[in-house]
Amino acid sequence: MTETSPPAFLRDERFIRGHGKVFVMFMGRDGYSAEMSTEEFPRLREAVKLDACPKVYLRLQRTRSRFALDRRKKMDIVEIYHKAGEHAYYGYCLALGIKPE
Q1: What is the pTM of this model?
Q2: Given Cys at both, which of 23, 58, 69, 83 links 73, Cβ 3.0 to 4.6 Å?
Q3: What confidence tens digit (pLDDT) does each residue in 12-69 have?
Q4: Residue 34: how many CA atoms within 13 Å on its side-chain side?
Q5: CB count, 10 Å around CB of 5?
Q6: Spatial separation of the C-alpha atoms in residues 91 and 29, rounded to whole Å
Q7: Using CA atoms, how far apart are residues 38 and 27, in angstroms rounded to an integer?
């Protein structure tokens, strides 16, 4: 099985910033604090990515985290992360003049 490299947009700072903003907005909408959102976003970005299995986040060691999360909350946050990624991708494509898929 050959390993494929992630799409280029995942490394683009414009997409990353947009994804982070949408993630914080969605987390706030669902009752999570902005501090938690900004702490969890880099952790999710490293562990889950947009195309990986969310179970990686469940097993991730939460050292130096100020927030205790149970399994259900972690799964909610992963779902928010993925939905924010879809919205950020759509906005990223529009900004570049690309028709989103």
Answers
A1: 0.83
A2: 69
A3: 899 999 999 999 999 999 999 999 999 889 888 888 776 666 777 777 776 677 888 8
A4: 2
A5: 7
A6: 19
A7: 10
pLDDT, tens only, 66-100: 888 888 888 899 899 999 999 999 999 998 898 87
**How far apart are alpha carbons 41 and 18 in whole angstroms?**
12
CA-CA-CA-CA dihedral for 81, 87, 91, 93, to nearest 10: 90
**Radius of gyration of the CA atoms of the chain, in A:** 14
Q: Which residues of 54-67 are buried (b: 16+ CB within 10 A; e: fewer)?
A: beebeeeeeeeeee
